Amino acid sequence: MEQFDFRRMSIYQIWVRSFCDGNGDGIGDLYGVYDKLDYIASLGVDAIWFSPIYPSPNADFGYDVSDYRDVHPDYGTLEQFQKVLRRAHELGLKVLLDLVINHTSDQHPWFLESRKGPDNPYSDYYFWRDPILKRSGRRLPNNWSSQFAGPAWEYGEERDQYYLHLFSKNQPDLNMDNPRVREEIEGIMRFWLDMGVDGFREDVITYISKREGLPNGLPWLPVINAMHHYKDGPNLLPYLRQFRAVAREYGAVQIGEAPMTGVKRALRYVCGPDRVLDMLIQFQPMMADCFLTEYLHHAFSLRKLKRAFSRWQYGLAGRGWNALYLENHDHPRIVSRYGSSHFWRESATALAASYIFQQGCPFVYQGQEIGMTNIRLHSIEQYLDVASRNLYHMFHKNEPQEKRMQRIHVSSRDSARTPVQWSGAPNAGFTSAPEPWFYVNQNYTKINVAAQEDDPDSVLNFYRAALALRKGSETLLFGDYREYHPHSGTHYLYERTLNGERIAVAISFAHIPLHIRLPEPWRGATKTLLLGNYPDAIPGTLRPYEAQVWKIEST
After folding, report:
1. Which tens digit of pLDDT belongs to each residue from 352-378?
2. Is 257 considered catalytic here?
3. Is-above-0.85 flag for pTM?
4. Catalytic residue check, 203
5. Separation in Å, CA 500 to CA 469, 480, 530, 552
């Protein structure tokens, strides 16, 4: 089947548990999603990406799947999902599901059978290895670290062996080298595609092929010491081609998450008609205030952000297509990271303009469109994110409590998982239950959908205007990208050009007014303001966190 033109899409991500509670039990669900579909369509997006909705023990809130062919009972039923799917399609919205196939839950029937012993059909669905016997005692099969901190091996008493888990011990890695496992994945894809789903976002898909023999990693490097043995592995391309063949039968889109992947490697996957993925979710724009992970925090660097933006814009130009994002379920809120609490509205809208008008498909994460911010909880016991808890308990243990908690405040994924703030009503209008499943950010009385809905200058309506402007412009959809003033630490200037049309984007990241020298192609030309976040915009002058989008016409 011919694939739809995914390049025109903008995509709204829903992390269901915190989106909207439709049945009053304090947990977001598909009933709440159904009730908000008209709102999602009003944003001007073209597709919804659902983070995992499958049954799960929630060790990693859905990314530990225990049944790939059903819906978590907290979220509803398969019938309710089909109702959501039908209504979304009626509204012109594509629906993408999260496909989590690097690992399962340790409660998945495959793993429960596999751990019983080597003599059953599921024995080699996972990586089981004997301990290394030394005079000093039993040692782990190798020195690999989990990305959630600690060793990547957990002991299974029934087999007297260890199993591999690159993430939580509750997320054993699937052995994709086993052809029966790949056949299972094909069946899962067809199950949902036959139902009418339009494609998949594929979780850490570049990890699914491990180096033969699972050799030791680098002993001096924490957390990612063995990444070179499991990222972009020896059989990754053949496995992706196998899954691509299934997607092509349905014309489905495939978006792969690819941590620590650069442009050169990305082109192997997203380039040309024989591409195995349509887009990659890479992490480089998320590293402008940290080193490798948000937990290793440093001051925000606009230059670092711009380098990441332009590296991918230039690198994929004419060869691949970018996935554009600044927020998702795995990262703290962007206004709290790259923006300003004092210039909250201005910085939230400036950040929107910084990425939506680049070449690629923009993703908007739930609550991002109203400028939701990070939450600051008092103790680690209040945080539910397994990665945050593990990092807190394993690193910097000699630091004062206040400093350790500050690391969590700036890095925890839980800040992206607070309930969406729908109104100033109790619990932010998220639920009618006495208490929601997780803490509501106490700024909900000021930052919420209802408060912004009828305000033409709100963050929400800026996102609507930006997405509409992109959708209505062939230049913003397909034009060439060029950055100006790349070394500036105070402003970001870029343009898009197509068939003689030029659209310029000027954004301040400063707390004080700026006077900038316009790039030569912009000087002496007629300028028509298409979008801005301040009244009375003046070319060459930028107020704090001002964003200007101009049509430039030579005279």
Report:
1. 999 999 999 999 999 999 999 999 999
2. yes
3. yes
4. yes
5. 18, 11, 17, 10
